[in-house]
């Protein structure tokens, strides 16, 4: 995550890694008991959103295997992949 | 006529052939007989013509043969020929009837012997490195959690199976396999085309663009892996905008694509491990973070609550505070009363003292009389002096029958002064003092000027400015034993 001074980015825009990293920082700050109570509550709520975001990313864990085939015009397209 | 099979040599009966005929015959013979040959030799006199054709001579210790590689074939050659290179050339022998020379037309060229191959590899590596293709600065970080993984490999065999298995174990993802030949003729071109093809996929297109690429091949000999040493593959890998993991051969095998890739995996399985994190671990990490966050939040609140409570305990009890203040106020009021009484007493004492110091009226009158007498005396002394001019003037007036007005004025002034002095004398009289509120106490024995002169029950007479009033001395004292007879009005008058 960037500086605390910087306006935080929308959680939905964050990659899994960024969201996880920010969540770690927030937890670390909460554990050290830093900051004002209002800030702590805000951080707490953002932490909840970050966690939900990460969880959503983890849920998208479905294997989908396809193979690339080339259409007659040379563009790529997908075909089912059957493991031989 | 087309039958050129030579008849048995019969001296004198040899058919006569033209040069063209014999040249064509030789050409046919050579091309039929040596339609496809493999020739090993060392390259010398290598030349790339402006037309794009390659010309060279293959030689060994005792012989030499000219060779040519046409432009179209030259582009597909796996190696760049150079003088001194030991090669095995595959092709056919042909002649060129115009000159009656024969030559080898090369279809493919490969290095002869491993030593030579390694030397070529090293030279190529150095050349591409000098070009900056392997620079650290070109390496891009791999995404932590790719959504789509592009795999360039053979669609059959253990490699793709290993990769898919390992991905499924760690973090199932969307995998796009771009099938390619990984060995042999055309393999390098296919691999390069696949890398470029993935990079050419538009973001958000029908085929999702991968976040990371894996280029993989199982183990094999140096020759087997050779496609991944080819410049076209190395360049495609170096140019790939999508981060690329190379996984070619076993851990000990290093191909040139490994230098150009963003990350080298020792095996295809390792490539899958590098590509994705373990989902289970991330779920656990997330759970742990959530638990820690909850704990921290609760602790934070508990700490604040404790702080508030302990601060609250530090606040004094308002009832007690009020009681203390109210007590202090009572004390002040009491002191105020005492002070007021003291102040009155002090004032009374002061008044008494001042009163005691007032001269007795008789004395005052005596002073005044003395002063008056003196003034009269002085006046008497002054009058003749003052009147002298007047008298003289009168005498003069009488003499001249003129009344001197000024003398009369002077006389009036003297009269006025006399009256003023009389008024002042009046102010000094004790009766004036009575006017100011003092009273004269007359006792049976005369004027009472000391408290000690009084006895309880004694009849008194108080003289005010406007008259006298009878009074009796108060107090609990017993009357004087020797009760004097009712006081005869013996009291002398003050005045």
From TrEMBL, chain A:
Localisation per UniProt entry: Cytoplasm
Any one of the GO CC terms: exodeoxyribonuclease VII complex
Matching SUPFAM superfamilies: XseB-like
InterPro entries cross-referenced by the UniProt entry: Exonuc_VII_S, Exonuc_VII_ssu_sf
Main function: Bidirectionally degrades single-stranded DNA into large acid-insoluble oligonucleotides, which are then degraded further into small acid-soluble oligonucleotides.
NCBIfam families: PRK00977.1-3, xseB
Family annotation (HAMAP family): Exonuc_7_S (MF_00337)
Database matches in PANTHER family: EXODEOXYRIBONUCLEASE 7 SMALL SUBUNIT (PTHR34137)
Subunit structure: Heterooligomer composed of large and small subunits.
Name of the protein this chain belongs to: Exodeoxyribonuclease 7 small subunit
From TrEMBL, chain B:
GO cellular component term of the entry, any: cytoplasm
Domain OB-fold nucleic acid binding: 17-109
InterPro entries in UniProt: Exonuc_VII_L (IPR003753), Exonuc_VII_lsu_C (IPR020579), OB-fold_nuc-bd_dom (IPR025824)
Cellular location(s): Cytoplasm
Alphabetical UniProt keywords: Cytoplasm, Exonuclease, Hydrolase, Nuclease
GO molecular function (one): exodeoxyribonuclease VII activity
Chain residue ranges for the region called Disordered: 469-495
A GO biological process held by the record: DNA catabolic process
EC number: 3.1.11.6
Record-given protein name: Exodeoxyribonuclease 7 large subunit
Native source organism of the sequence: Tistlia consotensis USBA 355
Taxonomic lineage from the root: Bacteria, Pseudomonadati, Pseudomonadota, Alphaproteobacteria, Rhodospirillales
